[in-house]
Input
Amino acid sequence: MAKTPKLDLTQRPRRLRRQPSRRALVAETVVRAADLIAPLFVVEGKARPEPIASMPGVFRLCIDDLVKECRELHKLGVPAVALFPKLSPKLKDEEGSEALNPETLVLRAVRAVKKAVPELTVITDVALDPYTSHGHDGVLNDAKDDVDNDRTVTILGRMAVLQAEAGVDFVAPSDMMDGRVGHIRKSLDAAGFTDAGILAYSAKYNSAYYGPFRDAVGSAQAAGTRLLSKATYQMNPANRREAVSEVQLDVAEGADIVMVKPAGAYLDIIREVRNAVRVPVAAYQVSGEYAQIHAAARLGWLDLARCRDESLLAIKRAGADMILTYFAKEVAKQLR
Ligand code: PBG
Output
């Protein structure tokens, strides 16, 4: 057989892909355990871990189990957790008053975790949806046809101070009310918590990918089927420039870290935001992103571990400095 003559190529990009060690040498992006933040759900009492059907492998934990989980995450090199309370419907009302109870579940959880693992960074959501009977992130106006922005912001400021008193490292306003970051910063400073940071859910979209989370915390009522939709405060998925405006407003108001949420379907937004600001950028790989990888894997259609790793790599490559992900623990284990 005649030998094929070699092409006269100066550049052969395949040279850099020859074997694993060459590929490792030229890898532009790495995901480290130190990039990950584990979202965790907490429940009252001494219950056994409660599975969440739409989030395989994720459980609602009582405070004792939560503390154990936080110890393990810390040992695995995961630097931070984000805590979400699941409240009994009995504690919910129109005003979300339980959010201002100094002994409310999430505050007890924060104290327990900070006592047991003080080096772990603890983050808590500032929004009323776990506490309101209607599931909205704020309180309603008199006509009940809108979330009352300014009254909600006042409540969120008090909520943030309670969280700082309990010892959180970052409060994370996830409500998307106008002016909340500035008001929370002023409230924290006035109460002496100048070291408590703000991780702002700055570009939070009105996304269908939050479904499983709403099952997890029982806030599905407000998902948008009723007259008042979360679309009146969360961003329209159609918008990109607006994300930059939101992020710049939050930085101007005092956000230490800004966040884009969801992540996987919003990689362009992550990149845009990364290029627009100098503060660290977080991305939230939300419950629905986690669920869809699991669902396809369960059907045998996708490889769970490879899709998981690729999804996180893509989020980092897009420009995220840190990722909130329900995969945090298993990825950290694998990286060990
Ligand atoms: C609530 C909140 C939501 C999520 C984080 N904080 C849901 C919502 O806005 O309804 C979603 C997270 C996820 O889907 O994993 N303010």
Notes: The chain has one domain: 29-221+232-335. Residues 125, 127, 129, 137, 174, 210, 213-214, 219, 286-287 surround PBG (CB under 6 Å).
